[in-house]
């Protein structure tokens, strides 16, 4: 992946995902800057977008929440179970006028929209699509609420800014990552991004399939306590996106500096609550950057049956480091041994002291290399890490189906 480019719109073929289960909540700006005509153009867009999906309790459910100075729910997820009634209800949503209290809308969605009584379902991706024509009235409150919303398990937030009064930075703050923040010049242009928006919404992977994941964290002296904690926060957020369990995703964690240290194996914690709690208790080590020893430890100790390795699960190693290794030749050799065992390696380099050539040598391929400018920028690639892992899992699932004579096509 390399460095992450500025936002751009690239038209792609829309994936055929209309029958997949998903809970989608549209959050529509109805402030005074919109006006009745433009608000109705938003509704037209929502209606056209919704028409692509198979609506029902076993497929896609859609809700609409409207906000300005106040928030109201036009209808919950479980209100309409067929296309005809849903599309008619969208057309009836009322415009209210007022200020742009985006924070209140995000809070409402987090606390109310996905409740079981409103149609929220377990093990289904929750997708929030926020459409607005301006900056929020209370940006700091909006950021706080956006962070709380994105911390929910298996939740994707997409933002669409309309016109010249939007704040690009705020759109990215609210969205799951920069690739989920869209801009159009005016309300008439909304239809131009329907394909790209559908692609972003459909491209979900909550790892219902099995996956065995080990994080390998640099804990050398160049990191420092604060940056090491930021790494742990990143691991927690990525882990929070997955369904944790002995029949779903298992996660292990190893730290390294001069020597490697196992923090916990993949089969140590089988519930999300215990896993996330333990991640935050991992201690900082100090020392040199012997990445090779960390990689060798993973090969010898992590991906073995006694520590949770499963023959029918794809293996992933996610390396985070802020510098070049102390022994580059040994590091590349250790990485090659792991790749020969079928382990997919994702390499994340942080800061300006990294060796990009080394990262590319460690990773499974160029699409599994990520670089960020600093530790606080890690959250920007969280969704990209999921996508890289998902792509490998889907490839493995397809190969297995071909070998066994099974197919879902």
From TrEMBL:
InterPro entries hit by this protein: ECM_Assembly_Org (IPR050525), VWF_A (IPR002035), vWFA_dom_sf (IPR036465)
GO CC annotation terms, alphabetical: extracellular region
Keywords: Glycoprotein, Repeat, Secreted, Signal
Pfam families found in the cross-reference section: VWA
Compartmental location: Secreted
SMART domains per UniProt: VWA
Main localization of the protein described in the UniProt heading: secreted
Domain VWFA, chain residue ranges per copy: 23-197, 212-385
Protein name in the entry: VWFA domain-containing protein
Organism: Potamilus streckersoni
